[in-house]
Please model this.
Amino acid sequence: MKQFLQMTLAGQTPKATRGHTAQLSWQWHGHGLLELQPHQPPRRDLVLSAAIHGDETAPVELLMRLLDELLSGRRTLAVRLLLILGNPPAMAAGCRYQQLDLNRLFGGRYPQGATGGAAPVEVVRARELESVLQAFWPHPSMRPRLHYDLHTAIRGSLHPRFALLPCQPRPYAAELLAWFPQAGITALVQHNRPGGTFSHYSSEQFAAASCTLELGKARPFGANDLAEFAGVAAALAAQVSGDFCADVRRAERELQVFRVSQELRKLSPDFRLAFDSEVLNFTPFPRGSLLAEDGETCYRVEAAEEYLLFPNAGVRPGLRAGLMLVPQPFSALLAS
Ligand code: ZN
Model:
């Protein structure tokens, strides 16, 4: 299974779909889908996914390095681990997606398009990833469930590394929150409504402690400075080997927490952002600032100050073209 990435990119099926090493057994579940199980009883169930957006390559390189360490026995596996490379055809083509943004489709949020034609490739893949999670987590379990969905952002950011937490009706797991500072993450963003992201799906359907990680700027394969990702790599490795100690107080001291205050939704092709396209994520705007216009609709800052995230006027109408954030206390994440 050392050729996992190459086979995934080439769309090849391995000759053997399961095997074992001295400390673990592995099973290939499909293109870009590999489960590892330690011979010892696991402490938790962990899903690590990358390349849900095909051109976000640095996290793939991180996961492949981790896989190599596990298969060679240089690193101990203390968890049941499911590795997911989200969108292999887009990875091979070096693009974010082929037909639809995969990270908007989970939980059955498939656009109702023309009938009769073949389903878009990303719709087929979203269904496949949903059933792989279902097979990995078939029954309620006493073991903690975690899901880190690894991404890199398109634009620069005042917080180079940050995490997005799905909207969920229960408190966020202390174990999840405590892990972030170890990974060099400095900001958290709590969603205020359900969405079609992979991490929302795993949180909602399987009660997993889930997050979307934004780990830096997207670059092509081989052009990533992996030193930039060393903190995240070490923190993921510690999670996989079960040797990190949860320190929620450190997370409370070090993390800046935001929640989504409003969404800039693209209603029509006339949608225009009102600021420079190079503006960084987490740039603050004062009350009253014009953010975007879309025909008769104007989006303005409503709170004393709101922070911009993921502005992108290029999405298709009906989707969000940006998020606005307001600060909130860390303690809100632990309250039910
Ligand atoms: Zn992404």
User: Anything to note?
Assistant: The mean pLDDT is 93. Residues 53, 56, 151 surround zinc ion (CB under 6 Å).
